[in-house]
Specification:
With 296 residues, the protein is an alpha/beta fold. It has nine helices and twelve strands. The protein has two domains: 124 residues, Response regulator (Rossmann fold), CATH 3.40.50; 157 residues, Rossmann fold, CATH 3.40.50.
Protein backbone atom coordinates (compact mmCIF):
# COMPACT_ATOMS: atom_id res chain seq x y z
CA UNK A 1 0.00 0.00 0.00
CA UNK A 2 0.96 3.59 -0.52
CA UNK A 3 1.62 5.48 2.71
CA UNK A 4 1.38 9.21 3.41
CA UNK A 5 2.61 11.05 6.50
CA UNK A 6 0.74 13.84 8.28
CA UNK A 7 2.51 16.00 10.84
CA UNK A 8 -0.15 18.00 12.63
CA UNK A 9 -0.58 20.49 15.42
CA UNK A 10 -2.82 19.70 18.43
CA UNK A 11 -5.68 17.44 17.29
CA UNK A 12 -7.75 18.53 20.29
CA UNK A 13 -8.41 21.69 18.23
CA UNK A 14 -11.37 21.45 15.86
CA UNK A 15 -9.73 22.76 12.66
CA UNK A 16 -6.68 20.45 12.58
CA UNK A 17 -8.79 17.44 13.57
CA UNK A 18 -11.29 18.14 10.77
CA UNK A 19 -8.43 18.50 8.28
CA UNK A 20 -6.92 15.20 9.50
CA UNK A 21 -10.31 13.51 9.13
CA UNK A 22 -10.64 14.71 5.53
CA UNK A 23 -7.09 13.62 4.72
CA UNK A 24 -7.70 10.18 6.17
CA UNK A 25 -10.99 9.60 4.28
CA UNK A 26 -9.68 10.76 0.93
CA UNK A 27 -6.49 8.71 1.31
CA UNK A 28 -8.53 5.61 2.20
CA UNK A 29 -10.70 6.18 -0.88
CA UNK A 30 -7.49 6.28 -2.96
CA UNK A 31 -6.19 3.10 -1.37
CA UNK A 32 -3.50 4.87 0.67
CA UNK A 33 -2.87 4.81 4.41
CA UNK A 34 -1.91 7.78 6.59
CA UNK A 35 0.56 7.80 9.47
CA UNK A 36 -0.23 10.70 11.80
CA UNK A 37 2.32 12.36 14.03
CA UNK A 38 1.03 15.08 16.40
CA UNK A 39 3.45 17.71 17.66
CA UNK A 40 2.94 20.08 20.54
CA UNK A 41 5.67 22.47 19.49
CA UNK A 42 7.11 23.40 16.05
CA UNK A 43 10.56 22.21 17.23
CA UNK A 44 9.16 18.66 17.32
CA UNK A 45 8.56 18.73 13.55
CA UNK A 46 12.11 17.67 12.67
CA UNK A 47 12.13 14.43 14.72
CA UNK A 48 8.56 13.72 13.57
CA UNK A 49 9.62 14.11 9.94
CA UNK A 50 12.66 11.85 10.43
CA UNK A 51 10.51 9.21 12.06
CA UNK A 52 7.96 9.24 9.24
CA UNK A 53 10.69 9.10 6.59
CA UNK A 54 12.16 6.08 8.40
CA UNK A 55 8.74 4.47 8.00
CA UNK A 56 9.04 5.05 4.26
CA UNK A 57 6.14 7.45 3.67
CA UNK A 58 6.04 8.50 0.03
CA UNK A 59 4.83 12.06 0.67
CA UNK A 60 4.28 14.36 3.66
CA UNK A 61 1.68 16.90 4.71
CA UNK A 62 2.57 19.39 7.45
CA UNK A 63 -0.19 21.27 9.30
CA UNK A 64 1.88 23.13 11.88
CA UNK A 65 2.42 26.91 11.90
CA UNK A 66 5.99 27.35 10.67
CA UNK A 67 8.23 30.30 9.91
CA UNK A 68 9.69 30.45 6.39
CA UNK A 69 13.19 29.22 7.25
CA UNK A 70 11.89 26.34 9.32
CA UNK A 71 9.54 25.12 6.56
CA UNK A 72 12.27 25.47 3.92
CA UNK A 73 14.67 23.46 6.10
CA UNK A 74 12.13 20.64 6.53
CA UNK A 75 11.39 20.52 2.80
CA UNK A 76 15.11 20.29 1.99
CA UNK A 77 15.62 17.51 4.55
CA UNK A 78 12.72 15.45 3.20
CA UNK A 79 13.84 15.71 -0.44
CA UNK A 80 13.21 13.80 -2.71
CA UNK A 81 10.03 12.97 -0.72
CA UNK A 82 7.49 15.72 -1.55
CA UNK A 83 6.15 17.87 1.30
CA UNK A 84 3.08 20.11 1.30
CA UNK A 85 2.61 22.76 4.03
CA UNK A 86 -0.79 24.04 5.23
CA UNK A 87 0.20 26.81 7.66
CA UNK A 88 2.99 28.93 6.19
CA UNK A 89 3.31 32.45 4.76
CA UNK A 90 3.32 33.01 0.97
CA UNK A 91 6.94 34.18 1.31
CA UNK A 92 8.10 30.65 2.26
CA UNK A 93 9.74 28.90 -0.71
CA UNK A 94 7.87 25.65 -0.16
CA UNK A 95 4.86 23.83 -1.61
CA UNK A 96 1.81 25.12 0.19
CA UNK A 97 -1.95 25.02 0.23
CA UNK A 98 -3.35 27.85 2.35
CA UNK A 99 -6.58 29.73 2.82
CA UNK A 100 -6.74 33.40 1.85
CA UNK A 101 -6.49 35.05 5.29
CA UNK A 102 -6.58 38.62 3.98
CA UNK A 103 -9.83 37.94 2.12
CA UNK A 104 -11.36 36.32 5.21
CA UNK A 105 -10.41 39.28 7.37
CA UNK A 106 -11.87 41.74 4.84
CA UNK A 107 -15.13 39.80 4.57
CA UNK A 108 -15.56 39.90 8.36
CA UNK A 109 -14.90 43.63 8.64
CA UNK A 110 -17.08 44.50 5.64
CA UNK A 111 -19.94 42.43 7.05
CA UNK A 112 -19.84 44.31 10.37
CA UNK A 113 -19.52 47.71 8.68
CA UNK A 114 -22.49 46.93 6.46
CA UNK A 115 -24.52 46.30 9.63
CA UNK A 116 -23.58 49.76 10.92
CA UNK A 117 -20.97 48.71 13.52
CA UNK A 118 -18.01 51.00 14.14
CA UNK A 119 -16.71 50.04 17.58
CA UNK A 120 -15.09 46.75 16.73
CA UNK A 121 -12.83 44.76 19.06
CA UNK A 122 -10.48 42.02 17.83
CA UNK A 123 -9.67 38.70 19.45
CA UNK A 124 -6.65 37.37 17.60
CA UNK A 125 -5.01 33.94 17.75
CA UNK A 126 -1.55 33.27 19.20
CA UNK A 127 1.23 35.57 18.03
CA UNK A 128 3.32 32.49 17.16
CA UNK A 129 0.79 31.46 14.47
CA UNK A 130 1.34 32.53 10.86
CA UNK A 131 -2.40 32.34 10.12
CA UNK A 132 -3.32 34.33 13.25
CA UNK A 133 -0.90 37.11 12.32
CA UNK A 134 -2.29 37.24 8.77
CA UNK A 135 -5.90 37.49 10.01
CA UNK A 136 -5.03 40.25 12.50
CA UNK A 137 -3.12 42.24 9.86
CA UNK A 138 -6.06 41.83 7.45
CA UNK A 139 -8.58 43.10 10.02
CA UNK A 140 -6.41 46.12 10.82
CA UNK A 141 -5.95 46.97 7.13
CA UNK A 142 -9.67 46.64 6.40
CA UNK A 143 -10.56 48.81 9.40
CA UNK A 144 -7.95 51.42 8.41
CA UNK A 145 -9.43 51.55 4.89
CA UNK A 146 -12.72 52.53 6.52
CA UNK A 147 -10.93 55.17 8.62
CA UNK A 148 -11.35 53.09 11.79
CA UNK A 149 -9.16 51.49 14.42
CA UNK A 150 -9.97 48.52 16.61
CA UNK A 151 -11.45 49.59 19.96
CA UNK A 152 -9.42 46.85 21.68
CA UNK A 153 -7.18 43.92 20.71
CA UNK A 154 -6.62 40.72 22.68
CA UNK A 155 -4.75 37.50 21.91
CA UNK A 156 -5.92 33.98 22.68
CA UNK A 157 -4.56 30.46 22.13
CA UNK A 158 -7.43 29.23 19.84
CA UNK A 159 -9.25 27.42 22.68
CA UNK A 160 -12.80 28.08 23.91
CA UNK A 161 -11.59 28.57 27.49
CA UNK A 162 -9.19 31.30 26.38
CA UNK A 163 -11.97 32.88 24.28
CA UNK A 164 -14.08 32.95 27.43
CA UNK A 165 -11.35 34.60 29.53
CA UNK A 166 -10.37 37.16 26.88
CA UNK A 167 -14.05 37.73 26.12
CA UNK A 168 -14.58 38.81 29.72
CA UNK A 169 -11.66 41.24 29.39
CA UNK A 170 -13.01 42.77 26.14
CA UNK A 171 -16.49 43.09 27.65
CA UNK A 172 -15.23 44.85 30.78
CA UNK A 173 -13.78 47.99 29.14
CA UNK A 174 -15.23 51.49 29.65
CA UNK A 175 -17.24 51.23 26.41
CA UNK A 176 -18.86 47.99 25.25
CA UNK A 177 -17.82 47.25 21.64
CA UNK A 178 -20.62 46.92 19.02
CA UNK A 179 -18.98 43.81 17.70
CA UNK A 180 -16.06 41.42 18.16
CA UNK A 181 -14.16 39.74 15.33
CA UNK A 182 -12.75 36.48 16.63
CA UNK A 183 -9.89 34.60 14.92
CA UNK A 184 -11.57 31.19 15.24
CA UNK A 185 -14.91 29.62 16.10
CA UNK A 186 -13.74 27.85 19.26
CA UNK A 187 -12.72 31.16 20.85
CA UNK A 188 -16.00 32.67 19.59
CA UNK A 189 -17.83 29.96 21.53
CA UNK A 190 -16.05 31.08 24.70
CA UNK A 191 -16.78 34.76 23.96
CA UNK A 192 -20.51 33.99 23.59
CA UNK A 193 -20.45 32.24 26.95
CA UNK A 194 -18.85 35.34 28.52
CA UNK A 195 -21.58 37.52 26.91
CA UNK A 196 -24.29 35.25 28.37
CA UNK A 197 -22.75 35.49 31.85
CA UNK A 198 -22.67 39.27 31.64
CA UNK A 199 -26.27 39.43 30.39
CA UNK A 200 -25.14 40.94 27.06
CA UNK A 201 -27.44 39.80 24.25
CA UNK A 202 -25.90 38.35 21.05
CA UNK A 203 -26.71 39.78 18.53
CA UNK A 204 -29.04 42.36 20.20
CA UNK A 205 -26.26 44.21 22.03
CA UNK A 206 -23.14 42.83 20.43
CA UNK A 207 -22.35 41.03 17.15
CA UNK A 208 -19.85 38.17 17.09
CA UNK A 209 -18.10 36.91 13.94
CA UNK A 210 -15.86 33.83 13.99
CA UNK A 211 -13.40 32.27 11.54
CA UNK A 212 -13.25 28.60 10.39
CA UNK A 213 -16.86 27.39 10.13
CA UNK A 214 -16.01 24.10 11.79
CA UNK A 215 -18.71 21.41 11.72
CA UNK A 216 -20.30 22.48 15.04
CA UNK A 217 -20.47 26.24 14.48
CA UNK A 218 -24.01 26.14 13.05
CA UNK A 219 -25.09 24.59 16.38
CA UNK A 220 -23.77 27.29 18.70
CA UNK A 221 -26.41 29.43 20.38
CA UNK A 222 -27.04 31.61 18.48
CA UNK A 223 -25.71 29.90 15.31
CA UNK A 224 -22.39 31.56 14.50
CA UNK A 225 -21.73 33.98 11.66
CA UNK A 226 -18.25 33.08 10.50
CA UNK A 227 -15.68 32.93 7.70
CA UNK A 228 -15.73 29.50 6.14
CA UNK A 229 -12.49 27.66 5.45
CA UNK A 230 -13.46 24.51 3.59
CA UNK A 231 -11.36 22.05 5.61
CA UNK A 232 -12.70 18.97 3.85
CA UNK A 233 -11.75 20.39 0.48
CA UNK A 234 -8.31 21.39 1.78
CA UNK A 235 -7.71 17.86 3.10
CA UNK A 236 -8.89 16.26 -0.13
CA UNK A 237 -6.86 18.52 -2.41
CA UNK A 238 -3.80 17.91 -0.27
CA UNK A 239 -4.11 14.16 -0.73
CA UNK A 240 -4.60 14.57 -4.49
CA UNK A 241 -1.42 16.63 -4.65
CA UNK A 242 0.58 14.20 -2.51
CA UNK A 243 -0.45 11.21 -4.58
CA UNK A 244 0.06 12.88 -7.98
CA UNK A 245 3.17 11.57 -9.69
CA UNK A 246 5.88 14.20 -9.95
CA UNK A 247 4.60 16.38 -7.08
CA UNK A 248 8.15 16.87 -5.86
CA UNK A 249 9.31 18.58 -9.04
CA UNK A 250 6.41 21.02 -9.27
CA UNK A 251 6.80 23.92 -6.84
CA UNK A 252 3.29 25.07 -6.16
CA UNK A 253 1.52 27.55 -3.93
CA UNK A 254 -2.20 26.90 -3.91
CA UNK A 255 -4.50 29.49 -2.33
CA UNK A 256 -8.04 28.51 -1.41
CA UNK A 257 -10.80 31.12 -1.17
CA UNK A 258 -12.90 31.64 1.97
CA UNK A 259 -16.54 32.71 2.22
CA UNK A 260 -18.71 34.60 4.68
CA UNK A 261 -21.44 32.46 6.25
CA UNK A 262 -24.08 34.71 7.73
CA UNK A 263 -25.99 33.15 10.62
CA UNK A 264 -27.49 34.69 13.76
CA UNK A 265 -24.64 35.97 15.92
CA UNK A 266 -24.45 39.22 13.95
CA UNK A 267 -27.16 41.82 13.35
CA UNK A 268 -27.73 45.45 12.47
CA UNK A 269 -26.66 48.03 15.06
CA UNK A 270 -29.69 48.84 17.19
CA UNK A 271 -30.92 52.22 18.38
CA UNK A 272 -30.18 50.97 21.90
CA UNK A 273 -26.51 50.62 21.00
CA UNK A 274 -26.55 54.10 19.48
CA UNK A 275 -28.22 55.56 22.61
CA UNK A 276 -25.66 53.91 24.84
CA UNK A 277 -22.83 55.44 22.83
CA UNK A 278 -24.44 58.90 22.99
CA UNK A 279 -24.71 58.51 26.74
CA UNK A 280 -21.08 57.39 27.00
CA UNK A 281 -20.02 60.44 24.95
CA UNK A 282 -22.08 62.78 27.16
CA UNK A 283 -20.48 61.28 30.26
CA UNK A 284 -17.00 61.81 28.79
CA UNK A 285 -17.90 65.45 28.01
CA UNK A 286 -19.18 65.94 31.55
CA UNK A 287 -15.99 64.47 33.00
CA UNK A 288 -13.91 66.90 30.89
CA UNK A 289 -16.06 69.80 32.03
CA UNK A 290 -15.72 68.78 35.67
CA UNK A 291 -11.94 68.60 35.25
CA UNK A 292 -11.85 72.10 33.71
CA UNK A 293 -14.02 73.53 36.48
CA UNK A 294 -11.83 71.94 39.13
CA UNK A 295 -8.75 73.57 37.57
CA UNK A 296 -10.33 77.07 37.38
C1 LIG B 1 -6.25 27.20 11.95
C2 LIG B 1 -7.64 27.41 12.50
O1 LIG B 1 -8.26 28.48 11.84
C3 LIG B 1 -7.61 27.72 13.99
O2 LIG B 1 -8.90 27.65 14.49
C4 LIG B 1 -6.69 26.77 14.76
O3 LIG B 1 -7.32 25.53 14.90
C5 LIG B 1 -5.36 26.63 14.04
O4 LIG B 1 -5.55 26.23 12.70
C6 LIG B 1 -4.46 25.61 14.71
O5 LIG B 1 -3.19 25.72 14.19
S1 LIG B 1 -6.43 26.63 10.27
C7 LIG B 1 -4.79 26.39 9.73
C8 LIG B 1 -4.80 25.55 8.49
C9 LIG B 1 -4.15 27.71 9.45
Amino acid sequence: TRTLGLITTDLALHAPSQIASAVKSRATAQGASVLISMVEHPQQCLPALQELLAQRVEALLVNVPLDDAHAEQLQALASPVPVLFLDVAPSAQVNSLVFNAALGAHLGVEHLLSLGHQHIALLSGPESSVAARARLAGWKTALAQAGLEATAVAHGDWSAVCGYEKGHVLLSGAVLPDAILVANDQMALGVMRACAEKGIAVPGQISIVGFDDTADSAWFSPPLTTIRQAFREAGERSVEWLLAPGSAEKFRQIQLPVTLITRHSSARRTSRQADREDLAQQLRNLALLAEQLARE
